[in-house]
Structure formats: structure tokens, C-alpha cells
Design goal:
By secondary structure, this protein is an alpha+beta fold. It is 24% helix and 28% strand. The protein contains 17 helices and 30 strands. The strands form 8 sheets. Strands 3, 8, 11, 12, 13, 14, 15 and 16 form an 8-stranded mixed β-sheet that branches. A hairpin with a 2-residue loop joins strand 24 (524-531) and strand 25. The two termini are 46 Å apart.
Length: 667
């Protein structure tokens, strides 16, 4: 393909015609004409190698097909057919035919009577035999060879009966640009397989084709052709490499176009090296056995000749104006490439810094101190900004303080890590020094592409009469505290507390009551938030060391539940179980039988939404929906599962164990 494109590009009359094709509104991924315009423009102005990915995609080739062997003749015909269709009714209409179309006549002519049956056909290339033909002229003679129909093979001439006849092909005209396909690949009946023909086949610098024209052909101009392109195949049937030997102008200067390498070549290389056949043997020495010759597997596969009388028109047509829309489109893409490169460089020189804590922690209703992904509530955002990788912690603290309205000495930052149990917790206190953000991210092995930090605001810390916060962190731990109110089914952060391993859990209960705003005599329950599926109640009588509480752990506090209390989610584990199984469900009306106007609602614009746990009982779902639509008896509602296309399926059976999970379509 690359070799053929180079050959077509230097045919300036063809290049100009391609530029004249209107492609303003074409999809660049599907338009062959637009993709070819871009390739030609880039070949014309770019100092870099030109990418053809867009062109191959416009043919419908995916990345795998682009690496498969394709026949260049097939590619050429598909390309020209596509362009001719696109050119119809435009300024470029007929350009492909004017350059590449010739006419040939297939005939059967009777010997003894005046009768001839003939058919004139158009062609864009000619496939010539290599096997049994030593030269290009031999191949043309073979193509036009006359077959005699006699004996049992006589021709049935209309009105004359069976007659001796001659059958053959003669050319009515040759196109200005003559593309000759040498049949290097043929079916071998003996091997029952396709094989490559590496026989020697010579092609001349010029050839006069007048002898192969019919008597009626126009001979007002010479039919002498000059060679301007040799497409070469190196390899065998199943694999190989193509390159082109091209003579771009009327000067006798040849170049080898081998993908991104373009080098001058000699006439000897063009007219000797790629004929095929066998390598010449070195002169033998007396008494030495002659080595067997080896075949040349690199040989000409396609030839491009240009009619000498029309060469100036074909090759020196001048440069047609490049379409304005193409220039604008390419400039826009270059601007976009520059923008993306700048963005890429900015991304490479910066990193995302996310900070949890403070009011954000107080309003967090889920696991951990915060979510660092799309689960984080939009009305409770984290501090999240890209910062230069070379920024020091001291500089970042100043910026963070300004952004959040705090004083730099009113808080300190902790690094956060992803634990094995999939939670994200505080790990180490960061010194406000000259360590860069990139060094923090790399040295802590934080397992994230972004830097996640926790802001320990001193105002949020529990009273510390023993001065634990000022002791070395090897002796004490920072623990975060949440408060759960079952009456409101609400949880949130209330602050932080320092503990040491020898303390009993019960020792901090009075401080926790103060932090959550409960009277001093209120019985409380404490739970450790180990991970989403494991919320463990803490034994007040054990030490923190025995309870394995460390920096970054979370303790959830709630008032003890009495026998008279009745809550939907009475305990912290119940709340987190609900969070873990919570889904958003849309309920829509099922169409009645014969309801022809019903259409599925893929965007759920007509439904009622409920956010609930998949463990919610059937009757509670039915009661909620009945209240929403004003129905007195929820038992008169029936639910149906839904197909992926929005169509109702089977009804959901109401049983004592039926839950919302049974109503949802299976994954």
C-alpha cells in the first residue's frame, strides 16, 4: 500500500483530482477520499514520515487486518472504485478514468465467413503472465495470443453454423498511466497450493505497444511508454515486504521508497536486480565443485508505465490548491495535538493531591474517612487539586491553608495508605519540611497514583489532659471517632483522639461521650470499623494493645439500645450492612395487555426512585410504593422483573423471605 501510494502521489494530475473531491462534511474515520487527501497533503508538506492508519481504517480494516497480507491489485481497484464514486458529479468527475482506464476487445472471428463476435471492455490494470515469458513484450504477446477454434472445437456462428474461427484479445487503447500486474503468484496444480513465481522476467525502460493495438485504434500519437515505477515484493507466498522504485519526474533519476526510508538508486539496480531468476554464480576454480545457484526472492510485482506523449501533463500538472477545509481541519488537529501534549506534560509534571478531614469527615456517611472515587457525595467534596510534583510539603501546607481558610499552624497532615483489607487509613505524620510531594508519594509506597492525605485539625481533637498528642508517635496512636444516631439512621465523624496501648478501652469512654454530646451517665456501645463487611464491637475491659487498635483506626460510638427502642437499623453493623447493600431502583408502570403505545423507558424518566438495601423486605417496598401512588392496600401491587431492554418478565412471588434483591434482574 505504501509503495502504491507513493506512486500515485507523484502522479500530480491524479493528486490534483483527489484534492478536488468535496469532503467538507465527511467523517474522517469512514471517508477514503478525505483520508487520501490527508496522506497526500502530509506527503507534500511534512518533514516527518506520514501515518496511514486513518486510511486503512477508512477501508474498514482494523489493527489486525492492517498487519495481514493484502493484494496490491485488489487494494488499487478498491481505492479507485471508491474515488470514482466520490468524484461523480464533481469537478473531479472522470479523472480516474482519464488517467488509468483503457479499452480492450475480446473477439471471435470466423476464418471462412465474414462474421465476428466481439465485446469491448474497460480496464484499469492488466495482469500479465511471468511464467514462460522472458520479457515484458513476451507477456503482452502471450496476453494477445490467438487461439484457433477448429475440429471438435468449432465456433457456432449465428446464421452460419459451426465455423473455424480465431479467438483472442486486442487492445483498443492504453491509458496514460498503465499499471501492469505481474502474476508472481499462481496456483500450482501439482502441489495443490498457491506458489510464488520467482522466474526471471525482464522489463525495459521504454516499450512501444502499438503492435498490440487493433487496426481501428487511434495512432495520431505515439504509443511509446516509459517506465516510472516498479513495485517490488521480497519474500514468499505467506510473508514478505514491499517497496517501490520510483522515477518521480521526467528526469532519469530513480529512488527507492521503502516505508520511511527514501534513497537514490542506480539504473542498474532498477533494470537488473529485480528481474527475478537466479543470482549469478561466482567464477569456479579448478578442482572445486560448483555450488548450486540460488533464486532471487526479491522481484518486480507491479510496473507503472506512463505514455511518453502525455508525461508532461501527467507528472507536471502543477499543484492544485489544497482545500481550505482540509487545511483548517489539519490545523485544528495540530492545535489539539499541541494542547494534548501540553496537557500530557502538565500531567507528567504534576500529581493529584486529595485531602480528607475536617467538615468533610463530619459529613461523611460511608466507610473510612472518605471515599476517594466517584462514590464520594457531590455535596461533600474532598479537597482535590493537581499540584507540581516538585512542590514541597511546606509550600503545599501554605496553599492548603489558604484554600480552606485555616492557619498553617492549626493542623498537620498525615499520609494515607491502602490497607490489605481494602480500606484507606492514616499511616504516618508528615513533617512540614522540604520533602516534595513526589518524594512523599514514592517513599511511602502508598499504592496510589495520587497523593492521599488526612488533615488533622487540632480543633477537632478530643481534650488531651495527659498530653498524649505531644508524645512520640511510636508511643501513641491517632484514632478517628464517628457517632451513629439510630433514631435518624445517620453517622458522621466527630473528631480524633490520641490513645496509648496500655489504656483500657473504657478509659476513653467519658471523653467519647463529651465528643459526641451525650450526657455523662449515658451507656454507650463502641465498634471498630475494620472493613466494610466486618464491624466488630469493642470490649471496654481490654487494652487498646490487646484490641489491636493502631493509628488510622476508626471507632464508632452509639448510645446503647434499650428494650423499649425500635429502630430500622438499631446498631452500627446494621447501618454499614445497609450501606454495603444499598442500591438505587426505579419503579415504572407495567404496560397493560394490548397497550400498543407503551415503549420501554431506558432513561427511567417516568419512574419512581427508591434507594434502599437489597435486603429490604418485599412488604416494606410495597408499602413505600403504595404511599407514593396513593394506593390504600399495598397487597394489590404486583412487581415484575425487567429484561435488559426494559421489557417486563416474570412476576415476583410475595413470600416471607422475599426481598428487594429478588425483584432485581440477575447479573
Amino acid at each position: 500500500m505504501n509503495s502504491l501510494l507513493q506512486s500515485l502521489y507523484f502522479t500530480s494530475e491524479f493528486r490534483n483530482a483527489v484534492y478536488q473531491i468535496p469532503t467538507e462534511n465527511d467523517d474522517p474515520k469512514k471517508s477514503v477520499a478525505l483520508a487520501l487527501q490527508r496522506v497526500f497533503y502530509n506527503l507534500q508538506v511534512s518533514d516527518e514520515t506520514v501515518d496511514t492508519t486513518e486510511l486503512t481504517k477508512s477501508f474498514g480494516w482494523d489493527s489486525l487486518e492492517s498487519f495481514m497480507q493484502h493484494d496490491v491489485q485488489e487494494f488499487n481497484r478498491v481505492l479507485q472504485d471508491n474515488l470514482e464514486t466520490k468524484m461523480k458529479g464533481t469537478e473531479a468527475d472522470g479523472a480516474v478514468a482519464r488517467l488509468f482506464e483503457g479499452k480492450m476487445k475480446s473477439y471471435i472471428r470466423c476464418v471462412d465467413v465474414d462474421y465476428e463476435s466481439s465485446r469491448v471492455e474497460n480496464y484499469y490494470d492488466i495482469s500479465l503472465n511471468v511464467k514462460g515469458c522472458a520479457t515484458l513484450r513476451d507477456s503482452f504477446a502471450n496476453y494477445c495470443e490467438v487461439e484457433t477454434l477448429d475440429g471438435e472445437n468449432k465456433y457456432q456462428a449465428e446464421g452460419f453454423g459451426l465455423q473455424d474461427a480465431r479467438k483472442g484479445v486486442i487492445f483498443e487503447s492504453f491509458p496514460p498511466v498503465l499499471q501492469l500486474q505481474l502474476k508472481r503468484f499462481e496456483y500450482d496444480f501439482m502441489r495443490d497450493a498457491m506458489v510464488k513465481i520467482n522466474d526471471r522476467h525482464e522489463f525495459p525502460p521504454t516499450i512501444d505497444l502499438q503492435e498490440f493495438l487493433s487496426d481501428d485504434a487511434d495512432r495520431s500519437m505515439s504509443w511509446k511508454y516509459a517506465l516510472h515505477g516498479v513495485l517490488v515484493h521480497s519474500g514468499d507466498l505467506h510473508s514478505g515486504h514491499y517497496f517501490g522504485l520510483l522515477r518521480p519526474t521526467t528526469e532519469d533519476k530513480w529512488f527507492r521508497f521503502d516505508d520511511d526510508r527514501v534513497v537514490p538508486v542506480t539504473r542498474n539496480e532498477v533494470f537488473e536486480e529485480y528481474y527475478g531468476g537466479e543470482f549469478p554464480l561466482p567464477p569456479g576454480q579448478p578442482g572445486m565443485r560448483q555450488r548450486p545457484s540460488s533464486k532471487r526472492y526479491t522481484n518486480a510485482y507491479m510496473l507503472v508505465y506512463i505514455r511518453e506523449a502525455l508525461r508532461d501533463r501527467v507528472l507536471n500538472a502543477g499543484d492544485a490548491p489544497i482545500p481550505e477545509h482540509l487545511l483548517k481541519r489539519i490545523q485544528d488537529e495540530r492545535d489539539e495535538d499541541v494542547r494534548r501534549q501540553q496537557e500530557k506534560e502538565a500531567l507528567a509534571s504534576s500529581l493529584m493531591v486529595q485531602v480528607a478531614g475536617g467538615t468533610q469527615f463530619a459529613r461523611h456517611r460511608g466507610f473510612d474517612l472518605s471515599y476517594f472515587d466517584q462514590r464520594q457525595a457531590a455535596d461533600n467534596p474532598l479537597f482535590a487539586e493537581r499540584m507540581p510534583r516538585t512542590m514541597t510539603l511546606r509550600e503545599f501546607i501554605a496553599i492548603y491553608a489558604e484554600r480552606t481558610g485555616q492557619k498553617p499552624d492549626s493542623f498537620r497532615l498525615w499520609s494515607m495508605v491502602g490497607r490489605v483489607n481494602k480500606t484507606v487509613r492514616c499511616e504516618q505524620l508528615l513533617p512540614a519540611g522540604d520533602l516534595t510531594l513526589a518524594q512523599v508519594l514514592e517513599s511511602r509506597s502508598l499504592r496510589f497514583s495520587e497523593l492521599r492525605l488526612f488533615c488533622e485539625s487540632f480543633a477537632d481533637n478530643a481534650p488531651d489532659p495527659d498530653g498524649l498528642a505531644s508524645r512520640p508517635l511510636t508511643e501513641v496512636s491517632l484514632v478517628h471517632v464517628k457517632f451513629y444516631d439510630p433514631a435518624r439512621t445517620l453517622i458522621g465523624g466527630v473528631g480524633n483522639i490520641y490513645i496509648h496501648g496500655e489504656q483500657r478501652v473504657a478509659d476513653i469512654v467519658p471523653t467519647l461521650r463529651t465528643m459526641v454530646g451525650l450526657p455523662a451517665d449515658t451507656p454507650v456501645l463502641l465498634f471498630e470499623e475494620v472493613k466494610p463487611t466486618l464491624i466488630e464491637e469493642l470490649d471496654p475491659s481490654v487494652t487498646f494493645q490487646k484490641a489491636e487498635i493502631q493509628s488510622g483506626d476508626i471507632i464508632c460510638v452509639q448510645r446503647a439500645i434499650g428494650p423499649e427502642d425500635s429502630y430500622a437499623l438499631p446498631l452500627v453493623p446494621d447501618y454499614f450492612d445497609d450501606v454495603q447493600n444499598r442500591v438505587s431502583v426505579c419503579f415504572v408502570r407495567r404496560p397493560s395487555r394490548g397497550d400498543e403505545d407503551y415503549t420501554p423507558d431506558p432513561n427511567n424518566e417516568r419512574g419512581l426512585f427508591l434507594t434502599a438495601s437489597t435486603k429490604t423486605p418485599y412488604d416494606r417496598i410495597a408499602q413505600w410504593l403504595a404511599d407514593q401512588i396513593g394506593m390504600r392496600d399495598p397487597l394489590k401491587l404486583r412487581f415484575f422483573t425487567v429484561s435488559p431492554t426494559g421489557q417486563p418478565r416474570q412476576p415476583v412471588r410475595r413470600m416471607a423471605t422475599t426481598t428487594l434483591a429478588d425483584m432485581l434482574p440477575s447479573a
